[in-house]
Amino acid sequence: MLPKKNRVDTKSVEKIFKDGKFLNSPNLTFKFIISQRRERKISFIAPKSVAKLAVKRNMLRKRGYMALEKHLQQFPTGLLGVFIFKKYQDKVLILENEIKNILNKIN
Fold this sequence. Notes:
- The chain is built from three helices and four strands; from the N terminus they run αβββαβα.
- The chain is of the alpha+beta class and 107 residues long.
- It has a single domain, classed as Ribosomal Protein S5, domain 2 (2-Layer Sandwich), CATH 3.30.230.10.
- The protein is globular and about 35 Å long.
């Protein structure tokens, strides 16, 4: 799982939702802003509309972080972003492919 220092805090999430751009894929939406900071921070959100049980939402988030680890260094520095699950998808390979596609759209 991604260390907490590399995840977006609540205040930044509000700013991302207010001012950020977004990219869509079949299972994920990526909302992001590019700031002047040196580090990149990315988080996952699993809403109740995707999975009612907190255990399943936490599992989705953890699988998302596992899929993100391989591609984290390829995201531009200064990026603050949030992946939001649209559908229940617990297969890590599918999530990796979607993250890679979103990364290609950003770069």
